Amino acid sequence: MHCNACILLTESELEEVSYITKAKSSLNNHTVEIAGEFNDKSTETIAKELTHILAKHGYTLSTEKRTQPKRWSDFKIALPAAIAFAVGFVFLQKAGLVNLVGGGNVNYGTAFVIGIIASLSTCMAVVGGLVLSMSATFAKEGDRVKPQLLFHAGRLISFFVLGGVIGAVGSAFTLNVSATFSLSVLVAIVMLILGINLLDVFHWSKRLQPSMPKFFARHAYGASKLNHRLTPFLVGIATFFLPCGFTQSMQIYTLSTGSFLTGALTMGTFALGTLPVLGLVSFSSFSIQNSSYAGIFFKTAGLIVILFALYNLMNALVVIELIQPLFSL
Q1: 17: left (phi over 0), alpha (psi -120 to 50) or beta
Q2: How many CA atoms lie within 13 A of 291 on its CB side?
Q3: How far is CA 95 from CA 280, 324, 329, in A?
Q4: Which residues is 259 bridged to in the sheet?
Q5: pLDDT by residue (tens digit) across 21-59?
Q6: What is the residue-wise DSSP string for 265-307?
Q7: Angle of helix 231-238 relative to helix 125-139, nearest 10 degrees?
Q8: Domains defined for the chain, CATH in brackets
Q9: Partners of residue 36 on adjacent β-strands
């Protein structure tokens, strides 16, 4: 288990099982407690049956505690790859070819890149779970394409519109230098926690990850079980409220923009960055988690997110004129 999305996904799937009345997952110790009518089934048999249910999401159940190797050797490739990305980022910005970050703010290019990383990370497992669940629901009617298109349309539209709403709400407040600095630091801290989580070597950091109240997230996930023509579109809209730390960090930043258009374009671009991978999840069984290179990828992505966090933190210090801009265009 990697994040709060794992809690939501495992609990929701297990509570769909006919003989289970309650399921409670724990991110701290990677366990799930279940209650129900099990008759004379052994714990090993139950674990095997429930593993079959959760396997499509990349989870397995065991009656004995398993130790997950941290695989520090992955950093031999992940670290150079992240450094190469950082060098390329600086080069492109200095050359003016792309303006990923400018003026101390997260720009649309950054939002798009973070969207790509988010869509490949395990923090997006719950959205993939929504897609798979919805696919199974509508496949019974032989309709595999239209629901997926409606889902992605709802997702893109909701991120654009609701992102604009958050930006407009921010415009109602006059953000002074101190408030802008505080929001920038908050975004940097959230991204730093997300990056450390992606490294998957410091398990204590998972407790620090922010999450949407479970009430909203659980109802958003439950909507995918409904079989109605507009359900995919509504589920796509609901993903705006699901417990993805990357989404929440972008929402916090969007509040600081104080503009409907800027907020809408920022969140819309972020959602657009998630589209390619989620599209693959929709129409195939693609999953980076099952790849033998998953550890290298997640550590590389984690290091890149940490670099973004540190960059945003330095930009925040620039805002209060504590340091000079690191890069000047």
Answers
A1: beta
A2: 13
A3: 33, 20, 8
A4: none
A5: 999 988 778 889 999 998 888 999 999 999 998 887 778
A6: HHHHHHHHHHHHHHHHHHHS---GGGSTTHHHHHHHHHHHHHH
A7: 170
A8: 4-57 (3.30.70), 72-319 (no CATH)
A9: 20
